[in-house]
Amino acid sequence: MGCGHKDDKASLASSQIASFSHQPHQPPSTPASKEVWKKGGRMFSILLAVHLALLACTLVSSGAFEKIAVHDYDVFFLLTVMMLIVIIWIIFYLFGTSRCPDAILCKDSHAGPIWLRGGLILFAIFSLVMDVFKIGYYSSFYSCLSAIKIIYPIVQAIFVVVQTYFLWISAKDCVHVHLNVTRCGLMLTLTTNLAVWMSAVTDESVHKAHSKLKKNVTEEIFRWLMKAGMRSSSVEECNCNSQICQIFKNGYFWLYPFNIEYSLFASAMVYVMWKNVGRFIDHHSHHIHRLKFRLFRRTFFVGIVLGLIILVSGLGVLILYEVQVNSSTESSKKSQALTMYYIFNIVCLGFMSLVCIGGSVIYRFDKRDMDRHKNPTRTLDVALLMGAALGQYAISYYSIVAIVASTPRDAISALNLTYALLMIAQHTFQNIFIIEGLHRQPPKEDHKHDSHQKDLYGLTFVNINAVSLRVPDSGSTLASSTASGAEAIHPSDFVRSLTAPKKMNWRRKFLREISMFLLLSNIILWIMPAFGARPQFDNDTELNFYGDSMWPAIVDICLPFGIFYRMHAVASLLEVYIMS
């Protein structure tokens, strides 16, 4: 019966009958029958996410202070419950919602690209290693710590595995059943990732501040720092004296940046899925571009070589900075490390700014059309780029005010001022370059140009004598009997047809070189602050101007956004590179 139905649908007459009998497959009539008020379902899920986010933020911030009767294990308990609920909903989605008839009528080709999912898996692997280190560290104190501290990393590891698998196979789904349940589940997943991110940022920032500002903090902040690692009532009772315990402790703190980026990447992908719930995609206007990632094709290797030089040089600067600042108490070595750090960043940021300006100029001569179709993924990318840049903008402007208003001014202050100004300029020019690249149409007609160019080359070199000898002096058209279709071709058309694609390829090659250079440069600018190189804590100008309470708070709030900006810029530049 089913096979006969498929055979009937193959014919023209029965396909018309089937079009009337299968109304759910017609996008224009489906939304009215399945969802009456789309904004109502979205609003309810947003309210749920806002309340949960505020609750998690309240507990995370309250658990950082000793005077408030909220402990860190209270935060762990809330996060554990949220992750367990999300795991249950994901299982329900995978084995229930997604297998319903007509559950996924279409997929968003722009959502969850392979490079974004690959980055998610990379961060997930490091997050699992971090959870293993955290389990080993807390297991050393199982007799004097709450059991939730051991349960939490176990549940988090399961949550990372289940969520990564869910996003890998379902990131492109446009669900059309269980709409409100799916929206609430996705918003709960997004809020859980943001809550885990807030907890990780607080713990990691407190650890960095404790190692750098122990001599300059007040008593209240010092107690806060001591309380972030474990309960104040058990600090003396639970000492980490063994070598394996120290390895676990230092290991999971070094892996915190990967877990932070994993939570943000997952949140971005979940948000796109939430936007696609109940969405119908018009395949006539929603072009699917199957772009192939070929790293070593159509490139001169200039951007890759320069980017690798910046990357390797930055790693050397980071190692020297960590050794001279954290391992030495001499002020002269600290000044040398800050000078070296600022000079490297000034050169890198200045070069990146010039390259971004050059890329924007090349876009002015690019003949590709602008992509104005609805694209939730691109809209989110632009919003995250603009929003995350505000964190670094804030730090830079605070530094500029402190340097200009402070006296006396030395060489490090001048370098710091130049560094802050270039940071603002580089973020601005890079955002312009990336946003313009994301809104360009991919080179979807390259194969047409290539085939046409190949025919013209064959016509030119095979019939070169005929073309050169039979062209009249009056410049009339040449009838080519050898070309397919017997088209009339003017000699000047040969030149335009042969040179126009070549010029376009030159522009695209330069754009690919620029994208690859910026990608590698952003990687090192992400690595340096994420793994300890934070001159905001080592330069005394801002600390003396704003005080030892206000300035660390400003940096701790704004710097995670700046770090996330770099990693999100890497993903966006990779997309620009592939689309060029």
Automatic annotation (TrEMBL):
This is OTOP2 protein. It is a multi-pass membrane protein. It comes from Stercorarius parasiticus (Parasitic jaeger). Its main location: membrane. It is found in: Cell membrane. Keywords: Cell membrane, Hydrogen ion transport, Ion channel, Ion transport, Membrane, Transmembrane, Transmembrane helix, Transport. It comes from the Eukaryota. GO terms for molecular function: proton channel activity. The chain crosses the membrane at residues 43-63, 75-95, 115-138, 150-169, 253-274, 295-321, 341-363, 383-405, 510-531, 551-578. One of its GO terms (cellular component) is plasma membrane. Belongs to the otopetrin family.
